[in-house]
Amino acid sequence: MIDVFDEKQASVIATQIVEGQAISAYGVLDAKPVPGFDGRLYEITNMIEKPKFEEAPSNLAIIGRYVLTPRIFEMIETLKPGAGGELQLTDALKQLLQYEKIYGYVFQGKRHDAGDKLGS
């Protein structure tokens, strides 16, 4: 992710392919593939926090790993409570998209999710 950040000089979000109904537990990317990068890099056009399965724009889930430009702090300062009455980083990232590109980079490997009882 840092290599992508260095090359693109833009924020990078880790994403993972999640199939089926489980996609509704994640923020989901609406993105187009970037040539090269072994099919792992996507330019993000939008993102939706925990969409219904049938409304998910892709199977690319946001998995909570980020390399962000400093401008994200300006976006966070203006946030209003979103889903669940909480401040959502996804909302700040959507605002950031209005000013600069953000990329999604497909994670390969095993990860553990603290929000899941099984950690997967």
Structure commentary:
Helices cover 18% and strands 30% of the residues. The chain contains three helices and five strands, in the order H-E-E-E-E-H-H-E. A five-stranded mixed β-sheet has the order 2-3-5-1-4. A hairpin with a 7-residue loop joins strand 2 and strand 3 (41-49). The two termini are 21 Å apart. The mean pLDDT is 90.
Low-confidence stretches: none
Backbone structural class:
alpha+beta
Please list the strands of the largest sheet in the order they lie side by side. Answer: 2-3-5-1-4
Number of helices, where a helix is a run of at least 4 consecutive DSSP H or I residues: 3
How confident is the prediction overall: mean pLDDT? 90
| Rg calculated over all Cα atoms | 14 Å
Query: Any idea what the shape is?
Result: globular
- Helix coverage percent of residues? 10-25%
Strand content: 25-35%
Number of strands: 5
Helix-strand topology string: HEEEEHHE
Span from first to last CA? 21 Å
Largest sheet features: 5 strands, mixed
